[in-house]
């Protein structure tokens, strides 16, 4: 089982404004870019930073969303994406509209970083931060354009994670306050496992997809009031319909890709993007995520996402080691 890579510090890029990011995260979900997009951004940014020869490696990434505006129609219960009309074709015919979901958002990116930067002085670390922000401003974040920061909150910095445990906790408490108001996306695979276990108690043939769909919707349950439950059988049975208690703001999310075929050697598949890399057909993997207020995070590792690869089983996953505090977690059933 892969674990979160060790990080010597955090590279924090706060309150980035992103325009026209991709709001369709998978064939089944929309509303916020997938974590695969942010991990792809991390790897692309790492390749750009290699040209500067900085003693710094990007290991993981965390995302806090402060504001978002999905580009959809308003005024009705059913929403549709605001689409652009493409120019006519060469022969004057109308080009088909390809549905593209877009959104504006304001996010904070926190990269787990490691390397020799910890031995540099503050001036040298500031140069790394400045170069990182300049490189990012020329890139796409989930397909969206990065706009300049508007106030002092947009100042990036490197936070060292070394030292005493109490010092690290104090630094993280300071960071959590700076990330408010906002919500961090974390993984809740445990909710999916628990729901699947509950469904199989009633229906042994239930699948993980049934559990995902059951968690992704609002469920109403019939509940008999206690005052009526003790009445005689001659009394007409009355029930109240109440919504099922939910474990916070949970959402279905794509978490990577699963193999549909064996690995093909480089150049074997026609029109592949890279003719020098092994190729495999894949499909999206889904799980449950939760939007958590940063002040509820107890450790920086709960925020960070990292990638795992298992070519034998064909799983290419984004993982997060968030563990819910049982004292603050509401039960899944009444």
Q: Can you put this structure into words, describing what you see?
A:
- The chain is α+β, with helices and mostly antiparallel strands.
- The protein has 6 helices and 13 strands.
- It has helices at residues 35-49, 122-137, 165-178, 189-202, 208-216, 226-229, and strands at 9-22, 57-70, 102-114, 140-141, 144-147, 157-160, 183-187, 220-223, 240-243, 249-259, 282-292, 305-310, 315-320.
- Strands 1, 2, 3, 4, 5, 6, 7, 10, 11, 12 and 13 form an 11-stranded antiparallel beta sheet that branches. It has a two-stranded antiparallel sheet with strand order 8-9.
- The two termini are 34 Å apart.
- Mean pLDDT is 82; it is low at 327-334.
The rough form would be described as: globular
Helix % is 10-25%
**Elements, N to C (H/E):** EHEEHEEEHEHHEHEEEEE
Cα radius of gyration in angstroms: 23 Å
Structural class: alpha+beta
The pLDDT mean sits at: 82
Strand content: 25-35%
How many DSSP helices?
6
Low-confidence parts: 327-334
Number of strands: 13
Reconstruct the topology from this structure.
Blueprint: E1 9-22, H1 35-49, E2 57-70, E3 102-114, H2 122-137, E4 140-141, E5 144-147, E6 157-160, H3 165-178, E7 183-187, H4 189-202, H5 208-216, E8 220-223, H6 226-229, E9 240-243, E10 249-259, E11 282-292, E12 305-310, E13 315-320
Antiparallel strand pairs: 1-3, 1-5, 1-6, 2-3, 2-7, 4-5, 7-11, 8-9, 10-11, 10-13, 12-13
Helix pairs in contact: 4-5
